[in-house]
């Protein structure tokens, strides 16, 4: 990559942004990390603190920064989809409006996800909106309000105004390390398995028959980072939307046992009923505090680690879900990540960092 690239990551403290920052820095790219509460734990990352919803705050924070590549990995969860649209489109437009006058931006990358195909939170994977799978990039937008669509439209409009190229990245469930992340299946399953081991409970699959028996895939945060960098520096890949996944497929009825074996606990498969993790773990906050104290863990607040609501959305879906990556492959992106290793490497890292016992 050219050393003339200057990268700005919006949301650098999250699961996608932090992994992207490490990957960019490993390629000797000057990298700024913009967020309300910057991540100071990444060596070499130049942190920038600002309120993404306050244009004046952004203008001050970015006054001396002239990025060539902007990567949006941030979002904010709200009570309604209408509010999701307002807030999450504003955080994109504010940053691009502030940077517009500089004339430095050459490419903008936006991370969304499979809710592009499955619908927003309040109508997620409901009958009447379910796509044919594997999902493909040419699948039309659903006739539903969706903050992903609103964010895309902001990027398209700014690109037409300012002349930069763009890329849209649609990962499946992202697996990787981050602390305090709103959507983190890997760490959620690690904490659930740790609670089961400590209490002697069975590691019970929380989701649907379709997810238990059907094919699925996921996206390693490190592979997603590689994909974003590739698309933002490859001429043929610009001005395109891409699905992003590891490149293998699996069934949860296989992977669930693999995870249980890693933790040395008893697996319990789908028994004909969905058992949401939000219910299964509803009373585990105090249990986790005891576990943390017993094993000298660094995080005693279970909610800083687990996002049961999001794992329930994914594992409770009434259909198998996997992604087609032919578009990326044809243009030359050939990276692959073994999904079992994505989980196992994350678990090992969480253990090394004293976040799980």
Automatic annotation (TrEMBL):
User: What name is this protein filed under?
Assistant: NAD-dependent epimerase/dehydratase family protein
CDD domains according to UniProt:
5beta-POR_like_SDR_a
InterPro entries documented for this protein: NAD(P)-bd_dom_sf, PRISE-like_Rossmann-fold
PRISE-like Rossmann-fold domain residues are 64-357
- Can you name the source organism? Mucilaginibacter aquatilis
């Amino acid at each position: 990559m050219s050393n003339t690239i200057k990268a700005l990551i919006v949301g650098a403290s999250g699961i996608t942004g932090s992994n992207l920052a490490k990957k960019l820095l490993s390629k000797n790219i000057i990298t700024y990390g913009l967020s309300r509460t910057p991540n100071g734990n990444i060596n070499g990352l130049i942190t920038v603190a600002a309120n993404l919803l306050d244009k004046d705050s952004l203008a001050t924070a970015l006054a001396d920064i002239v990025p060539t590549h902007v990567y949006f990995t941030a979002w904010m969860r709200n009570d309604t989809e209408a509010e999701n649209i307002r807030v999450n489109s504003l955080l994109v437009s504010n940053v691009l409006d502030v940077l517009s006058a500089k004339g430095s931006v050459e490419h903008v990358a936006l991370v969304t996800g499979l809710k592009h195909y499955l619908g927003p939170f309040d109508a997620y994977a409901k009958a009447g909106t379910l796509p044919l799978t594997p999902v493909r990039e040419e699948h039309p937008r659903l006739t539903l309000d969706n903050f992903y669509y609103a964010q895309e439209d902001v990027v398209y409009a700014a690109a037409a105004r300012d002349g930069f190229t763009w890329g849209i990245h649609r990962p499946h469930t992202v697996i990787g390390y981050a602390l305090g992340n709103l959507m983190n299946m890997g760490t959620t399953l690690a904490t659930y398995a740790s609670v089961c081991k400590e209490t002697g409970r069975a590691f019970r699959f929380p989701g649907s028959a379709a997810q238990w028996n059907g094919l699925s895939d996921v996206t390693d945060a490190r592979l997603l980072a590689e994909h974003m960098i590739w698309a933002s520096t490859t001429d043929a890949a610009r001005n395109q939307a891409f699905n992003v996944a590891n490149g293998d497929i699996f069934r949860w009825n296989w992977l669930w046992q693999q995870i249980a074996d890693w933790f040395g606990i008893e697996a319990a498969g789908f028994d004909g009923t969905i058992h949401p993790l939000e219910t299964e773990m509803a009373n585990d906050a105090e249990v986790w505090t005891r576990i943390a104290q017993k094993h000298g863990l660094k995080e005693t607040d279970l909610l800083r680690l687990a996002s049961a609501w999001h794992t329930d959305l994914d594992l409770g879906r009434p259909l198998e879900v996997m992604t087609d990556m032919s578009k990326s492959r044809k243009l030359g992106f050939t990276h692959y990540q073994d999904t079992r290793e994505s989980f196992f490497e994350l678990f090992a890292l969480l253990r090394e960092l004293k976040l799980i016992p």
